[in-house]
Amino acid sequence: MVQPTMLVHLNIAEVLRRWPRTARVFIHRRMACVGCPIARFESVADAAEAYHLPPTELVDALRRACGWRRRGPPRLKPRGRNDGHGRTGSLIGRRSD
User: Fold this and answer.
1) Burial class (CB in 10 A: 0-12, 13-18, 19+), 39
2) DSSP alpha helix (H) spans, the chain
3) Which domain holds residue 39?
4) What pLDDT, in 10s, does the model give residues 61-74?
5) Within the chain, what is the greatest distance between any pair of CA atoms?
6) How many structural domains comprise the chain?
7) pTM above 0.85, yes or no
């Protein structure tokens, strides 16, 4: 499985082959990547640079089209016993929402 952080290094043809829903991302941004013969050789980062787009913006849009969540710290699962306030697990490292 490809990690979402590696998406920026994949060539466009591979991204479109693995995740066909990403085609709409390129079309929406008026990028000619869909059907382009150079897509086999150009990475997502290269395409972003060629179209003067921030690579992180393009990668985030591709992630959303693939159904991947945005990068961020993983949520900690509660474990252990109740702390007396209705919460379980350790309070160390717990994110507050």
Assistant:
1) buried
2) 12-18, 23-28, 44-50, 55-66
3) 4-66
4) 999 988 876 554 44
5) 63
6) 1
7) no
